[in-house]
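Collaboration report, partner site 2.

Our partner group contributed sequences for two proteins of shared interest, and the home lab folded both. The records are reproduced in the order in which they were received, starting with the first partner submission.
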Amino acid sequence: MSRENEEPGAADELPEYAERVLEVAELIPPGRVMTYGDIAEWLGEGGPRQVGRVMALYGGPVPWWRVVRADGALLPGHELSALDHYREEGTPLREAPRSAAGHLPRLDMRRARWDGDQPPGGTGPPHSA
């Protein structure tokens, strides 16, 4: 997300793997999420850390809030921005107990997780089982 104000033409210089990760992020429907590991598995390449690195460097122009940690915790440093998106899109959340630090909810991963089997428009990269 650190490059959301990139210069024109910078997208042409993206590594191929980064382009593929960002394409998957754009396919995730509103109100749904995929984990970093889900995307790596779907692509059949890399792992959660590689996907996280791509999102950190290049994810600003795509719906970055739909690519999440497996535990459903909100992205550190971007919690409130992400929460606004989740509420706007109707993404399932688990409200935090009042005793929780910051009282921030987590994603309800059981209901919010998208497996990519039915991409919008009926097309997308093959899903590995």
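Second partner submission, folded after the first:
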Amino acid sequence: MEILIPLGFFAMIAALVIVPRYFKSMERQRMAETLRVAIEKGQPLPTEIIDAMSSNVRTPGLPPSPQRDLRTGIIWLGIGAGLVAMGAAVSFEEADALYPILGIAAFPIFIGLAFIALASLNKTKP
């Protein structure tokens, strides 16, 4: 019974990563099927559909944009702040739990700060 809590935690993390990717894949598959049928019937493709399909495509090898780095850094800082808040809440019940949770929270906080530093460094490049 005690194993269910950690398993539930990791299952939640996996679900948060896998489920959105699955639904995005299904959406792309339906769009491709619709386009295939339209091409088979000889209908012209509107430019809006082609633009919508190519708007979210990342080109490999290109450096990430400063805006993406800044967003990623802010998200990591939010995760770290959430862990700090959880540590503060847990410390009311168990005082010895505060420092280990703060230590764990330091990792996403420093990752977020690194992404924010990358965003500011990439802005200054010509």
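Feedback sent to the partner group on the second submission included the following. The longest helix spans residues 4-40. The mean pLDDT is 85.
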